[in-house]
Amino acid sequence: MKMRDPFAVGFVVIALFVLVITGFVIFSYRQIEAEYRPLQEDIVPGQVMLMDTQIHLAQLMTLVENALNTQSTVLWERESPSLILGMQTNARIHTERERHIGDEESEIAAGLEQLLARVIQQSQSLIFSPRNERQVDFQRAQLMANVRALNTRLTQHIDQHEIERNAAFEAMGKTLENASIVVITVTVLLLVGANLSGHTVSQHMMRPLVLIAEGAEALRNGQLDYRVPVNQKDTFGPVGEAFNAMAATLQGREKELRELNATLENRVDSRTAELQNAIHIAQDSLRLKSEFLSTMSHELRTPLNAITGFCSIMLEGMGGEIDDDARHMLGRIHSNGNHLLQLINEVLDLAKMEAGRMQLVYQPVRLAVIAQTWHEQMRGLGGDKPITFRIEVDPKLPEVVQSDSERLTQVAMNLISNAFKFTHQGHILMQLKPDGDHWQMIVSDTGIGIPPHALETIFEEFRQVDGTVTRAYGGTGLGLAIVRNLCRLMNGSVTVSSRLDQGSTFTITLPITPQENALALAEQELT
Amino acid sequence: MSRNRDLLKGWIVLVVEDQADSREVAERILRYYGATVYCTTNGIEALDMLESVVPRFILSDLSMPDMDGWTLIRRLRSDPRTTAIPVIALTAHAMAGDRERVIDAGFDHYITKPLTAQTFIEHLYDSLKSIPTLGAELGALNG
Q: ipTM score of the complex?
């Protein structure tokens, strides 16, 4: 055997090393492929899909707001079917996908699908089913709660995908790093071994190995376009080729990943933009509405002020003597002008409340004192009608409550003036009394009462019992809507009970110490 | 109850208001009660007018072009010649917080628009009564 021939031994050793390195490079290459596949096929597309669903959700909510604000379903009917179909398909694919992973995930994903179904169903019923305004508010609140839950759920899933994506990237990096380290180590060992055994391994033989080691180092440093020069006739030719193939694949994968990442980033950007857009549209429509009304009411008030101002001057005889007939007609102009002014002021108040722009100023309010001023201001409202008007303050009531005295007065005035308006004789009683950690203002009268069918809608805008009431009793039809909205704003409530021809009782319940402004809370949830 | 038409007899009053109708309503009512009324449409005109006229009090709108009521009151209060002249603000709406803002700015009082013959003179009377330098000179509202 010529095996002792040092050159032959060297050759075998080197050949073994070459085999090991080639094997390892191929192994690493396979592993990177395996690690890449779920990224390409599952994790990233899944994430994109979930983000799309989130975008669609935002768009759907914009459509709902639009339908409610414009009272028109045209846009909804045109845009919503494809949106809904897209969301449902995405959710179903998501469920399928998660089913492969495990029962628990699949169950969670199914929950997502159910939640989505509920949101879609609620959106449709909010837009199409007959209802009154209170139901709209209630349904809208329910829908928003579910949308928020769904959105949170989607974000959780997206975050989960993000974690998986990062983990896969890390694993790929680790594999590459290991491969490079092995190649470098083997090369160094080979060189050292050759030197130790006293063989001067020729530059010619070692050079390709050194080149591969350099290549491995370059890859490790992220230079994925690095290729080692390959000489086919060389012993190391196959190693170089395998190495270059791995580098090429890596480079290709890296490019694809970069593109996937770009897609993801695009999605994130457009997702953020869509959501902001949806929120802006909802807020803008409210803001524009309230700004329009605010400007309009100012513009309307200015000429109206002139009309009532000059009327009043003539009525007082400041512009010279006028006869009774003219005085009567001027009086009509004056009182109609005042009515219109009140209407404008109340519409503005309502708009401000709806747009969330009515600021409450909470201060200590002495109920007994403020009730006294109400009594003084309102007792004359009955005119010649035989009505007694009393205010009773329960001694158990806290002397001071936290409230906005101006708004509280607005509520009281509305209720008392209504009572005077609809009562021909008898009495009007206002009671202030404690109710746990709340207090109540109860206004009862012996007036004409409210028919049962009207009780439900009495707090809506422009809802007096019927048109004849407005003509017979005057008023704007906005007073009770303002009362209801003010009560809500003050974290309280208003209820009514009534019997026809017997009288009505309105009960306001308000917190003694308001915990937090309901509005501020709602705004926090929005942002 | 008949109003005392001599309530403001011999008083010089300066009205600062850009809106012609409001200005005329105020002017007519003040004249009816015997005042001599000078009208201007913004703060700059008012300051000009004050070079030659010394009113018993000034009625000033708040939002006006060129120089608004807020700037006017600052200028009036920082000039020793005008610092003592009582100024009553005409405010557009009774907004919560506006009252404090008006008084903090240096106005002696405020009257909320719209101005009508019945309410304006009573609010004006109450305002003037509460100003020490004028209250004593003021006659009775009901004559």
A: 0.88
